[in-house]
Amino acid sequence: MLLHTPSLLVAFALILVLASAASVSVGLKQQSRRGARWWVVANAIFAAALTLQAGTEPSAIGAPIAAVLALQWPILTLGGIRRFYSRGGTRISEWSDRIVLLVAVLVTVGAWVEPIELVSYAQIQAMATLFLTLYVASAVARLEDFATSSTLRALRLGLVAAAIVQLAWLAIVLAYLGPLVAVGDAALGALLSTAVIALLMTQLSLVMNHERRIAHLLASQRKLRHLVDVDTLTRLPNRRHFHELAERAVEAARDAATLIVFDVDRMQRVNELLGHPTGDEALRQIGTALRETLRRRDVAGRLGGDDFAVVLPRTRLADSAIVVSRIISRLDDRQVAPRITRVSLNVGSVQMIPNETISEALRRAETVLIAKRDEARRGETMPMPREAGADAHGDSEGDSEGEDLAPTPSALMSLIPVGEAILRPVR
Question: Is the pTM of this model over 0.85?
Answer without folding.
Answer: no
